[in-house]
Specification:
The longest helix has 14 residues. This protein has one domain: Orthogonal Bundle (Tetracycline Repressor, domain 2). The model has no long low-confidence stretch (mean pLDDT 87). The protein has 7 helices and no strands. The protein is 63% helix and 0% strand. By secondary structure, the protein is mostly helical. Helix 2 runs antiparallel to helix 7 and helix 5 crosses helix 6. It is globular and about 45 Å long.
Length: 126
């Protein structure tokens, strides 16, 4: 996927994925009709589930791109896990008091491991 393959030299895969996910979440039309449609989708469980399945269909190709970027076998389980959790982070925004912070905390975990979760201040804040 282009977020991984076209990232700037020296940028980590996780940082590139964080930026891509954040950008796709922020790139929303201000058109009232689109906002109304988005509200309908977010209030209908079947549509939420369908949207998530559509988004997650990229998991295998993203895992392959991550593996390729690191010279690992295309079926590497760590690459598959990173692809899955990076894509799924987008859904942490739903029904959260601090939706953007939820995504940042997820990517902090992906970038720095479990110890970031046990700290009182997330790494993305500083």
């Amino acid at each position: 996927m282009s977020a991984v393959r076209d990232r700037p030299a020296g940028q980590s895969v996780v940082t590139a994925l964080r930026e891509y996910i954040t950008r796709t979440m922020d790139n929303r039309s201000q058109d009232p009709a689109i906002a109304q449609l988005r509200e309908l989708i977010h209030s209908t469980p079947a549509l939420i589930e369908y949207g998530q399945r559509l988004w997650m269909r990229h998991e295998t190709s993203l895992a392959r791109a991550i593996a390729e970027a690191h010279g690992l076998p295309e079926d590497d389980p760590a690459c598959a896990a990173l692809a899955h959790f990076a894509l799924a982070a987008r859904f942490l925004r739903q029904r959260r008091a601090a939706p953007d912070e939820s995504v940042d905390r997820a990517f902090d975990l992906l970038e720095h491991g479990w110890t970031v979760v046990t700290t009182t201040e997330g790494l993305s804040q500083g």
